[in-house]
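Long-time lurker, finally posting.

We've been working with Pyridoxal phosphate phosphatase PHOSPHO2 (Lates japonicus) and I want a structural starting point before designing mutants. I don't trust myself to interpret raw outputs, so I'm hoping someone here can both generate the C-alpha cells and explain anything notable. Sequence follows.
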Amino acid sequence: MKTLMVFDFDHTVVDDNSDTWVVRCLPGQTLPDSIKNSYRKGHWTEFMGRVMNYIGDQEVSPDRVRSVMETIPFTAGMTELLTFISQNKNTIDCIVISDSNTMFIDWILCAAGLQVAVDRVFTNPAKVNELGYVEVQCYHSHECDRCPVNLCKKKVLELYLSEQSGGGVDYKRIFYVGDGGNDLCPTSCLRGHDVVMPRKGYTLEKLLAKLK
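Top reply, 14 upvotes:
Generated this for you. Predicted structure of Pyridoxal phosphate phosphatase PHOSPHO2:
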C-alpha cells in the first residue's frame, strides 16, 4: 500500500503567497487602493481576477508574469522533500490542493524541475485569454460554510480518495501538510493513524491547538 502526501502550496511548498508575489511584475510593484480595497472575505479568487485584469491593463505580458513567478522561494527543505518523493513514486503518491491557480503552480514547479513529484494539482483554473491577460476562475462550488466560496479542500480530498479507492488504490497512511485556515477542514476527514503537519507559527497550527 502506498503513502499519500497532500500539500497546500502557498506558505507550504513555497515560502510566500504566489497570489501576492505576482504584484512584483508591476512597474511600481504595488496595486492601487481601488483594487486593494475591493477584497471581500471568502472571495479571494474573484479578487485575484481583478488583480490579473489590472496587471494585463498595465501591458504586463504573461511571459513577464511567469518570469517573476519563477523567482518565488521554496520553503526550507521542500525541494529536497519533493525530490525524494519524485525518486520514490512507486511507494508515494503526491497531490497539491491549493487556492492559487494552475498557471502559477505549474510555472513554479516546472522552473524548479519538481513537477514530476506531483501527480495531481487541484486548484483554480487559469489561462491566457483572448486579450492576452491571465484569467483565473473558481475551482468549484460547494456547501461547506467553513471554507472560501471557491474551494473546500475537504471535498476535493474526499473525492480524490474515493476515486483512488474505486481504482483499487487505498493508502496506508496520509500526510497532510499545510499552513492556513482553509487547511483545517480537510484534516477532519483523515483517519486516526494519518498525520497532519501544520507549518509552525502559522494559522493551522493555532487552530489545531484550539481543537485539543
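Before you design anything, note these points.
The CA atoms of residues 95 and 160 lie 9 Å apart.
The chain is about 35% helix and 20% strand.
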